[in-house]
């Protein structure tokens, strides 16, 4: 049975890494069909809006989207495209794996952890932000709900159980922020009791940052609120070599959007040196989501194989002398020879 997905190629290097990713997906013979839609600067030029209604309707129809990096223009009047998509589809879970690969600039080996970030509330709400008339005082609100906390925590524990993970760490600042962070921790303890097969750990966010740098292998699944998750997920990307190896999944009840979390890198667009790994790994996570976990594993294993055996074909940021296209060619060749 075929599955149609909405594809947003993105801005800057987006089309280049998306083309490479789709070549790999085709080589896997996943039965996927693609429908292409505009978003970002391309959409703004064509349609006068960053996210056309047609794009939103397509994502709602197909329920799964693969998205390249999008550019939100700097200046007033433009809100973050990613925030728009998360709010529109209530994509409450942001899932960021950090997985070690050979040939990176990482100081660590054998990192395999997942950050699960609440994606729709917390400190990132535009409502409740004010600036005094004299410009001297800024105020913002942190909104954490029991419902929002429970569903992200339950998602993290269910993910751990499904993936055979041994431990969930809830990261908080309840010692100081006793209301919003305190509520999150309270709900974390309640939910943890329902999963006796999963080890539960709670950790204050500043200690979590230190522990991640000192001994990242102690972590398995990390679940936390919006602001802390935003920071920690990038820290974890740094443990495995940077955002070039960082996929992201935005999961809701009915819809899921998979993306490379790095930017559109307009300075290297068109030079064919962009590393497609982040989007490839996002595609692997998408295949997991669609029930094709063996195919997702094939992508990850093949990336590892090419990084080990075809150094001349990988992109310069990975220490190679190849291009986006030669990287994709090496991956396709390795898949067909399996």
TrEMBL record:
Highest taxon listed in the record's lineage: Bacteria
One annotated GO biological process: tricarboxylic acid cycle
Range of residues in the leader sequence: none
PROSITE patterns recorded: IDH_IMDH
Entry's EC annotation: 1.1.1.41
Key words, A-Z: Oxidoreductase
GO MF terms, alphabetically ordered: isocitrate dehydrogenase (NAD+) activity; magnesium ion binding; NAD binding
Oxidoreductase among keywords: yes
Protein name as catalogued: Isocitrate dehydrogenase
Lineage: Bacteria, Pseudomonadati, Pseudomonadota, Gammaproteobacteria, Oceanospirillales
